[in-house]
Write a structure and sequence with these properties.
151 residues; Hypothetical Protein Yqey, Chain: A, domain1
């Protein structure tokens, strides 16, 4: 499903002469092909699953956010803006992420479910969040909320 969405978006962007979307989707397709080849090299003849593709896209977004911070430190707003545009294209293929309020509600529910009381229980809470909200929760932001609520 995502693979077809990538191909469709690439065609649309090429027709619309949207160079940022074309280049970003090509980067996604190249990374996907690279991971497919690596998986075959490890004895997995199947292509990457949808969940693995989503994790790849999330890693690409995370990498770009780190680059934005560096570009802003280096006083390069043009490059930071380019990275933001790429993030928008990549995130359009991902399910909607939970906002701050939803993350806090999910963390409170997980804390109650696992019976967490101290920071020592953070691993249990994070495992529950990862299991229940895979692909739609930013675990970095969730970790900060867990620390705040348990700390």
């Amino acid at each position: 499903m995502l693979r077809q969405a990538f191909r469709d978006r690439l065609k649309e962007a090429m027709k619309a002469r949207d160079s940022r979307t074309v280049s970003t989707v090509r980067l996604i397709l190249a990374a996907l092909k690279e991971r497919d080849v690596a998986a075959r090299g490890q004895g997995n003849p199947e292509a990457l699953s949808e969940a693995e593709i989503q994790r790849m896209l999330q890693a690409m977004v995370k990498q770009r956010r780190e680059s934005i911070a560096l570009y802003e430190q280096g006083n390069r707003p043009d490059l930071a803006n380019q990275e933001n545009e790429e993030i928008a294209v990549i995130e359009s293929f991902l399910p909607r992420q939970l906002d701050e309020g939803e993350i806090e509600a999910a963390v409170k529910a997980a804390i109650g479910e696992v019976g967490a009381a101290t920071l020592k229980d953070m691993g249990k809470v994070m495992a529950a969040l990862r299991e229940r909200h895979a692909g739609v929760i930013d675990l970095g932001r969730a970790g900060a909320v867990v620390k705040r609520l348990l700390g």
